[in-house]
Amino acid sequence: MSDHITTLTNENFDSTINDAQTPVLVDFWAEWCGP
Known about the structure:
35 residues; 1 helix; 17% helix; globular
């Protein structure tokens, strides 16, 4: 499964989402945000 995980940045976010051939799940995470 980890081979399908991509770290998104400001530089690649739009192209990664817009060019995807399948649905994309984005998990927004922050160090200060608890579970």
